[in-house]
């Protein structure tokens, strides 16, 4: 049988197959070619499993090829790492320009990381209800920066429910990772999307009743309209990986599309003559804030605050 891992504790996996949810484990050693990780399987993985009719549980026998996956810490796969989730369709960052204001550096770092993982990213600007007309103009300016380089933006109020229907459409039938730093309203948004508030606590207690370890790595929640959201306890954002300086500009779409026109093919886009990126910056075609984030990440400054 085939199923989707929706929850993992490291020793037990909850597998969704058709309308059923089966608790599964792995028999013996389960090795996956090419990577060394502390956990072989993660939420979002598609697996094959056999039922153990007497116990009503399953044994996972095979992992399907992943289209992508995110890990904790380094993207350098020679190091031991923990896979947080696999097969993500989208990474969504909840931000706000109201307090506590999300810094553009934080947003850009998140987007770079999503690019490095090859996961399409999207920004949700929350707390729309707090903006005056002037504030709304500033909000529109920020959104234009990101929309122009291909990141869809949504303005919502999790508090009042404004534009939540648009987010629902976005999430339908997709596996979406939701991130955001503390205070932006991520929990409020998730509560809007998952009206069944008992869900989380229910699932945890059910597992501990059966004597299973309940330290979850990450969990997928099924949306009423179809699709899943992944909330990752313990990591509030995915902007934690290290990217080599030499390839950093590949993860800025507006730089990626111009760097073939730089005079030097090893151009760092910092002070080289004939740099197409610097020209575009001067022309106002590349946003200064985005370029500042590039420099900041390039020089190793922490923009996570
Ligand atoms: N005005 C306004 N306040 C909001 C909105 N969404 C959330 N808040 C408030 O912002 C605060 C943080 O909201 P949470 O949903 O707890 O935020 P979180 O991102 O999950 O943060 P943590 O719980 O700290 O992880 C709370 O006081 C919410 O009531 C919104 O759309 N408008
Ligand atoms: Zn250049």
Helix and strand arrangement:
Elements: E1 2-8, E2 13-17, E3 20-26, E4 46-52, E5 57-63, E6 69-71, E7 83-86, E8 90-95, H1 104-117, E9 121-125, H2 133-148, E10 153-155, H3 164-171, E11 175-179, H4 186-193, H5 199-209, E12 219-222, E13 228-231, H6 253-256, H7 276-282, H8 288-298
Parallel strand pairs: 3-5, 8-9, 8-11, 9-10, 11-13
Antiparallel strand pairs: 1-2, 1-4, 2-3, 4-5, 6-7, 12-13
The structure holds guanosine-5'-triphosphate and zinc ion.
Domain EngC GTPase: 86-236
EC number: 3.6.1.-
Cofactor: Zn(2+)
Describe this structure in words.
This protein has helices at about 105-115, 135-150, 165-170, 185-195, 200-210, 255, 275-280, 290-300, and strands spanning about 1-10, 15, 20-25, 45-50, 55-65, 70, 85, 90-95, 120-125, 155, 175-180, 220, 230. The protein starts with a strand and ends in a 7-residue tail after the last helix. It is α/β, with parallel strands linked by helices and about 300 residues long. It folds into three domains: about 1-70 and about 80-85, Nucleic acid-binding proteins (OB fold (Dihydrolipoamide Acetyltransferase, E2P)); about 90-195 and about 215-230, P-loop containing nucleotide triphosphate hydrolases (Rossmann fold); about 245-300, Probable gtpase engc, domain 3 (Ribonucleotide Reductase Protein R1, domain 1), CATH 1.10.40. A hairpin with a 4-residue loop joins strand 1 and strand 2 (about 15). It binds guanosine-5'-triphosphate (GTP) and zinc ion. Guanosine-5'-triphosphate binds next to helix 4.
